[in-house]
Amino acid sequence: MLNRNDAKKLVEKAVSSTKYYAVATLSASSVGTTRFANSEISQNVTITEARMSLCIYDGKKQATCATNVISNDGLEQLARDAEALLKYVPASEYGAFAFSQEPVAERDVSKTLAAAFDTQGRAAYIKKGVALLEDGYTASGALTFTDTTLAIGESSSFEGKKDSDAFGNGGFRYANYHNIAFNTVVTHESGADGAGECTSYTTVPDVVSCFAKAQKTAKAALNPVEPPLGAVTVVLSPAAFADLLSFTVMQLNAKSVEDGVSFARGKLGEKVFGENIIICDDVTNPDLLPLPFDYEGNVKCVLPLINSGVIENYVYDNKRAAKAGVKSTGHAVVARWYAGAVPMNVVVDGGEQTLDEIISNTENGIFINEFHYTNFVNARNLQITGLTRNGTFLIENGKITKPISTVRFTESMLDAFCNISAVSKEREIVGGFGAMLVPAVRVEGFHFTSRA
Fold first, then answer.
1. In whole angstroms, what is the distance from residue 279 CA to residue 302 CA?
2. 156 phi and psi, to 5 degrees?
3. How many distinct structural domains can be found in the chain?
4. Letter string b/e over residues 260-281, b meaning 16 or more CB atoms within 10 A of that residue's CB
5. How many Cβ atoms from other residues are within 10 Å of residue 136's Cβ?
6. Is there a single domain that holds both residue 281 and residue 195?
7. Are residues 191 and 259 both part of a single domain?
8. 33 assigned to some structural domain
9. Is residue 214 part of a domain?
10. 382 lies in the same domain as 340
11. Is the domain of 159 the same as that of 290?
């Protein structure tokens, strides 16, 4: 991938190719994916791409263009395209925002993941996992290694200046990081299945154990019974809880609040969830996304979101922060993203019990390994619907007993997250838009509405 010097030269070329004040964002990635189906590798592919976005300003007029032709000629054409567009755009409410000069410490990228998960390495991990499967079971899924570079710079940082220090301050930002993402579904010939997944930005995850977990779940899922409907006590795995939580934290952004589509509108400082819900966005967590600045160059910080059920903060980009008269929290994402700022290092506090203890202390209920097809019914009251999959089981007298077939839920998280009666000590990293470190939870009165 692009090293710091090469990325800086490309950003400098982009912003210096126009007479206007400009901000350039270079994003590049190399994504190596090994897919498998029916316990056989079906595809090995690596996609390498780069994209330069150039935003130029003339007072309050602003024009943005992008290209994947990363050459001198391509970047000069990008500047000409942006200048041509600038002639026709109307003035906006704001002009260019001051580029942050706040120090950012660049993190050293770990080479461990790249060495372990090259093409041969990915194939070897899959082979080991498939070898664990018993007769009658097959595995499908994907193992992906991603090498990402993000660099951002603005015109004045290259006007006869040098970086103010080795960390790339003074109007230029650079980050490079690696990620592994793995998922598998193990299926019995009868159709019963189970799933396993893991993700990591630093250490080598235990891919092979995900196969074992998925097969164990699939074996337990044979001969499912009909699920109960109505209000039920449920124990959600970290993956299932993270699915629901992602809808919640994505709504804690100032744009959604201002647009009137967020449950959090007018509720800053109010208690909306149970006291055992404590959530922050923590860029300093060493296991989560190692990107210390946002897509506008602002420094990320540790930001409390929910403290004992109380909404403590919204997340802001430059525009929404200016409207609110506050400082950006460093949560801007790519310019073409429509939904506002996003927390990308979500951490939920753990509890006092292990997951096994939570289950053993549940007289009757349902354990849910995963949801899918989850979506909003009504974002304003956090009402979500979705289906269970890949391992859903009855809990009877404190023990997981019979598997149940797929069932649909429809529930407001404003109710569900007030009815969390237990939070596990153990937490897992779950991928998504960034990463989340989340526990398992028990929810009382969770509503199942129909059988699939």
1. 11
2. -65, -20
3. 2
4. ebbbbeeeeeeebbbebbbbbb
5. 11
6. no
7. no
8. yes
9. no
10. yes
11. no
* Residue 174 and residue 249 share a domain: no
C-alpha span between 72 and 430 (Å, rounded): 40
CATH of the domain at 15: 3.30.2290.10
Q: What is the pLDDT along the chain (452 residues), one digit of tens a residue?
A: 789 999 999 999 999 999 999 999 999 999 999 999 999 999 999 999 999 999 999 999 999 999 999 999 999 999 999 999 999 999 999 999 999 988 888 777 878 999 999 999 999 999 999 999 999 999 999 999 999 999 999 998 666 554 444 444 467 999 999 999 999 999 999 999 999 999 999 999 999 999 999 999 999 999 999 999 999 999 999 999 999 999 999 999 999 999 999 999 999 999 999 999 999 999 999 999 999 999 999 999 899 999 999 999 999 999 999 999 999 999 999 866 777 899 999 999 999 999 999 999 999 999 999 999 999 999 999 999 999 999 999 999 999 999 999 999 999 999 999 999 999 999 999 998 889 999 999 999 999 999 88
Phi/psi of residue 70, nearest 5 degrees: -95, 75
Domain boundary among 134, 167, 199: 199
Asked whether residue 212 is assigned to any structural domain, the reply reads no
Domain assignment present for residue 216? The answer is: no
Q: Which two structure tokens, joined as six digits, stand for 123?
A: 């194939």
Q: Per the confidence metrics, is the pTM higher than 0.90?
A: yes
Q: Distance (Å, rounded) from C-alpha 206 to C-alpha 293?
A: 29
Same domain, 368 and 426: yes
Q: What are the structure tokens assigned to 66, written together?
A: 């992008």
One domain, residues 192 and 252: no
Tell me which residue range forms the domain holding 121.
4-199
Helix boundaries (H) for 204-281: 207-220, 238-250, 254-259
Residues 6+ apart with CB under 8 A from 357: none
